[in-house]
Structures are given as structure tokens and as C-alpha cells.
Amino acid sequence: MIVEDSLVVRRLLAHIVSRDPRLTLVAAVASAEEALQELPRIRPDVISMDIRLPGIDGLEATRRIMAEQPTPIVVIADSVEDSLRISMNALRAGALSVVEKPVGMATGGHERIAETICTQLYIMSQVPVIRRRGAFLDGPLALRTAPPRADQPPQRPGLIAIAASTGGPPALAQVLGALPADFPLPVLVVQHMGGSFMEGFSQWLDGLVAPPVAIAQEGEVPLPGRVYVAPGDRHLMVTAQGRLRVSAERPIGSQRPAATLLFRSLAEHCAPQSIGVLLTGMGEDGALGLAELRQAGGYAITEHESTAVVYGMPAAAVRLGGSSLALPLPMIGPRLLQLAGVAPLGVSPP
Predict the structure, then answer these.
(1) Active-site option among 87, 97, 285, 324
(2) Which whole-number Å values give the CA distances from 251 to 124, 247, 309, in the listed order?
(3) Tens digits of per-residue pLDDT, 245-257?
(4) Of the residues 48, 83, 97, 165, which is catalytic?
(5) Reading across the β-sheet that carries 187-191, which strands appear in turn?
(6) What is the model's pLDDT at position 105?
(7) 160 with 227: CB under 8 angstroms?
(8) What is the DSSP letter of 158?
(9) What is the percent of the chain with per-residue pLDDT over 70, rounded to a whole number?
(10) Judging by beta carbons within 10 Å of its beta carbon (0-12, 13-18, 19+), is residue 7 exposed, middle or buried?
């Protein structure tokens, strides 16, 4: 189902979807009110959601859908600041991904954007979603105790790297939200998202968590208590001199930024002092790099299946032996506090 108030864009989206053999268009409506009315009857497998709608906006529509009839939602948005803010909050409310609005068929880049939209709709249609009420999930409780640790944590950690894909923005907000402004380690972040959204994503995250968040810059020295996000369509790595490297080299596994390259750079240059964290995401990016980091002496945390929106990337890391410890999402932030020496290691995370 397409939800889009602009007749021109709605027809363009309908054309894009209808020509893709993987997809069948069941409805195209102009408002969230229509979408909510039609949803119980049509029961679509996935929804393309405009974020700036008259009346009920896309954020509130996402909240209601995820509370009443959970359905995979792909947000279609432009990169205007207000749209980005609403889009990021829609991801926090349960939408699975955000992609660029399509441009006219005669415009350069149309085919690329159209292919991205259709692929995202197809992939997300297969993601099982659960009911959300407010900020809480209905479903089985997360594990109350951590599994036995296979590795000894680093005695003097110096750096944390976190990677995520589908379901990542709210997961990152929860993990980073547990850290204080004076957290003693720098944190590097790879989040799979369209390049045009990364600046807005980092600003949104900066407004939610205590540590300052910004896009990583080439040659920077990562400082304690700061979060560095990989730029749009650029890899993020660490050099032998401890500086940040931003690279436009080829995608790895169709991903740029690629989590595997970030983790691999830590394995090469600073493994014994490094902590790698792999959160929810589709595919296998990051799994090989996290396994290499652990093999080189780093500490590797994967999100447990019980809380991952998509248990793809963490599962691949576990299969490759790239997990020192698997934790439900609410326990990862407190565990990082322990590893950084902010909380005593002998106390189990709440």
C-alpha cells in the first residue's frame, strides 16, 4: 500500500511499484486517515509511507499502525530538515527503513532511486514485526541474565565500534542513550542508510543521547565521550596512528559504509583495546570483520535474537565465531558502562 498525499508522487510511486515483478500494488491512498481505514481490509505486506501528510502525519500513522495492526513500513522522505526529523522518529516508532523520494523519470538518478525503493519494499515485506505501544514492545521479555562469557574483556579498552542496519536507529539510540556525556571512550558508528539522510540522522541522534554525535571527518583523532558516525556513502576506519579514515573505496557486500571494514581496521591496528558491537540488521555485513576482531584479541558483542528486529548480521557473526557475548538490546549499554570502568564488572546489567 502506498500512502502519499501528492498526486504526482503517488502516481510515480504506483508506476515504479507496478513495473516491478516482485511487487503488487493493492492500494494507493492520499492520507493517513484513509490508510488506517483501509488497513484492516487490505492487510498489505508492506507500506510505503510519506512522512509529511495533511492531518495525521506519517509519524503518528506509523505509531498507530504498529500499535493496532503491525505491518512493515518503509518511509519515503526528502532530505529537508523537518522531514528528516519526522522520519528518524518514525524509525524509532517502528518503521523499518527510510529511502529517498522518487524524482521525475526524466531526471538523473531516477532509475537508481526507483530500484532502491522497490528493493527496500520487497525486502521489508518479509520482515516479521511485533506490536508496539508507545516506546515499549509487546512480546517475550528480554533475557534477564547474560550468557556465560567466553572471552575476558579488555583491561584497558580504548575504543568502541558499533554497527547496525535494519532497525538500527532506535537500537543505537537505546545503546548510546545509556552512556553519560563524560563516557571515557570514543564510539564509532556505522549505520546502513541512504547517504542523503546521514547528516540528519547524526543530528537526530545527537539530540537524543548525552555524548555529542557528529559525522566523522577524515584525519580526526577520536576523543573520549564523543560519537563519530560514518558519512553517507563512505567507509569509516581507524588508521595505525589512531586517526579516523573516511574512504570512498568500493562497497563491500554492496554496503558503503561497511561494518566489516571498520571492525577489520580495529583488528589490524588496536584489537586488544577494542570493543566491537553488532546490532540488528539484514544480511551479513560486519560478521566477518567482528570475527577477525575477536580472533585478534578484541571483545565482540552481538545483539541477542530475542530483541533484534532482524537477526541477520548478529546471527552471521555468531556462526563465524565472532561473538564473545550475546546480549539483549537493553543490556548492551549497561555492559559497555561496565567494560569502560564506569560501572563495576561484578554487577550484572539490569
Answers:
(1) 285
(2) 22, 10, 24
(3) 999 999 998 999 9
(4) 165
(5) 213-215, 227-229, 187-191, 159-164, 274-278, 299-303, 325-327
(6) 62
(7) no
(8) -
(9) 89
(10) exposed
Q: What is the mean pLDDT of residues 305-317?
A: 94
DSSP string, 161-188: EEEE-TTHHHHHHHHHHTS-TT-SS-EE
> Of the residues 50, 192, 265, 274, which is catalytic?
192
Tell me, rounded to whole angstroms, the distance of Cα 110 from its chain centroid.
25
CA–CA separation, 61 and 47 (whole Å): 11
For 19, residues 6+ apart whose C-beta sits below 8 A from its C-beta are none
Residues with Cβ within 8 Å of residue 348, at least 6 apart in sequence: 145, 146
What is the rounded distance in angstroms from the CA atom of residue 53 to the CA atom of residue 300? 42
DSSP 18-32: HT-TT-----EESSH
The answer to whether residue 285 is catalytic is yes
Closest by CA position to 222, among listed 270, 176, 257, 185:
185
Is 57 among the residues known to form the active site?
A: no
| 246 beta partners | 236
The pTM for the full model equals: 0.87
Tell me the pLDDT band of 134, cut-offs 50, 70 and 90: very low
